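Lecture notes, unit on protein representations.

Consider one protein chain, 160 amino acids long.
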Amino acid sequence: MGKTFQLFLLGLLSLGLVLSGCSQQEKTDKVAPAETSPPKEALKIFVPAEVKDRWHAVKIAILDHTTGAEKTYTIALGETFQVPNSALSLRVDTFLPAFIMNGSQMTSQSNETRNPAAYVVVTDNQQPLFAGWLFSLYPDAHAFHDARYNFNLTGYVPAR
């Protein structure tokens, strides 16, 4: 083989190694930022003074897929409701009549029912299954869906 051909092959081999090394470095660079990103700030619920004590309960419709029956229950804020013929219980922690999310804080923009939402906790034999929001205007957003049950926020009861 001629000297020119040998130099050409050596050049190709060197170029392949350089490109391979850059490719490996790029992969490493893409992964590193994800490993060092700071943890997300915990979400907080803030109930404004004008909303506190202005609402007594919410109405939750429970659809039983096995029977096709849907029944609506009125559940007081802070109370736990045992789902009939089930090991599930539902606790209503908070009601926000005009739900908004401001950064990491969830609050109510006013006391008018513009975007009603209830924060609920669902347990099965006292084991947590779901903790999140039910929205009356957007029933499928972040809703609890189970093989047997669906829960939907359908109404709200003001305090007297």
